[in-house]
């Protein structure tokens, strides 16, 4: 018990300094990316928009079909070798924290965009038609009628994505970010108690995710009040 109390401040310090900020910042940016991606992919415009839609479709495909760890390695270890004349002649070099935020944000955006897109598509076409009858443009109907309903029904899966992201931040240790898991590895290497340290880290993640699960349930109760049966 004394060993646990001895190392707990270090682990929690790393969690609140890196793990939680990385998860929160990445999720917020990821949601913005997801919303933009979903709206572009459901657009019915032609011409240049078809090319844009193809680019975003490729973005979603590549991030959903490759491991997150590989993505982190490409961004942090690979981009420095991508030399672009006039823009980045010495390669694109990012500090670990920035590389982590960028990768987690893009990964989250790809997955959450499908959640939001599916929620928008699930809205009955009759609501689009009713909005058109009232004289609303497609954009007005989307802003005032469709998106509020879609985002409300997206709360459970998006909350699940955030909880998964909190756990996935442990991969940030692979690009030298001194977050919760990396600190536990350093301590385990020094005290030769890997079972204790990794079990303690697992417990901390479990507590964080349990709290988030309760918050998710609360948000679902609030949003369900406005759901039409």
From TrEMBL:
<keyword id="KW-0812">Transmembrane</keyword>
<keyword id="KW-0472">Membrane</keyword>
<protein>
    <submittedName>
        <fullName>L-cystine transport system permease protein TcyB</fullName>
    </submittedName>
</protein>
<keyword id="KW-1133">Transmembrane helix</keyword>
<feature type="transmembrane region" description="Helical">
    <location>
        <begin position="54"/>
        <end position="79"/>
    </location>
</feature>
<dbReference type="InterPro" id="IPR043429">
    <property type="entry name" value="ArtM/GltK/GlnP/TcyL/YhdX-like"/>
</dbReference>
<feature type="transmembrane region" description="Helical">
    <location>
        <begin position="20"/>
        <end position="42"/>
    </location>
</feature>
<keyword id="KW-1003">Cell membrane</keyword>
<dbReference type="InterPro" id="IPR010065">
    <property type="entry name" value="AA_ABC_transptr_permease_3TM"/>
</dbReference>
<keyword id="KW-0813">Transport</keyword>
<feature type="domain" description="ABC transmembrane type-1">
    <location>
        <begin position="16"/>
        <end position="216"/>
    </location>
</feature>
<feature type="transmembrane region" description="Helical">
    <location>
        <begin position="195"/>
        <end position="215"/>
    </location>
</feature>
<keyword id="KW-0029">Amino-acid transport</keyword>
<comment type="similarity">
    <text>Belongs to the binding-protein-dependent transport system permease family.</text>
</comment>
<dbReference type="InterPro" id="IPR000515">
    <property type="entry name" value="MetI-like"/>
</dbReference>
<dbReference type="Pfam" id="PF00528">
    <property type="entry name" value="BPD_transp_1"/>
</dbReference>
<dbReference type="InterPro" id="IPR035906">
    <property type="entry name" value="MetI-like_sf"/>
</dbReference>
């Amino acid at each position: 018990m004394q060993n646990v109390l001895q190392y707990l401040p270090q682990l929690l310090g790393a969690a609140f300094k890196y793990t939680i900020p990385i998860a929160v910042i990445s999720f917020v940016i990821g949601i913005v990316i997801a919303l933009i991606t979903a709206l572009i992919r459901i657009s019915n415009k032609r011409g240049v928009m078809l090319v844009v839609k193809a680019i975003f479709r490729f973005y979603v495909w590549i991030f959903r079909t490759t491991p997150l760890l590989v993505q982190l390695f490409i961004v942090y270890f690979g981009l420095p070798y991508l030399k672009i004349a006039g823009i980045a002649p010495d390669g694109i070099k990012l500090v670990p924290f920035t590389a982590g935020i960028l990768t987690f944000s893009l990964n989250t955006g790809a997955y959450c965009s499908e959640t939001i897109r599916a929620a928008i598509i699930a809205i009955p076409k009759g609501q689009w038609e009713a909005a058109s009858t009232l004289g609303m443009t497609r954009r007005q109907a989307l802003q005032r009628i469709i998106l509020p309903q879609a985002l409300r029904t997206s709360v459970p899966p998006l909350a699940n994505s955030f909880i998964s992201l909190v756990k996935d931040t442990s991969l940030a240790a692979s690009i030298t970010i001194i977050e919760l898991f990396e600190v536990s590895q350093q301590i385990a290497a020094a005290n030769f108690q890997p079972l204790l340290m990794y079990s303690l880290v697992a417990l901390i993640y479990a507590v964080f995710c349990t709290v988030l699960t309760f918050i998710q349930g609360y948000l679902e109760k609030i949003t369900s009040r406005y759901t039409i049966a």
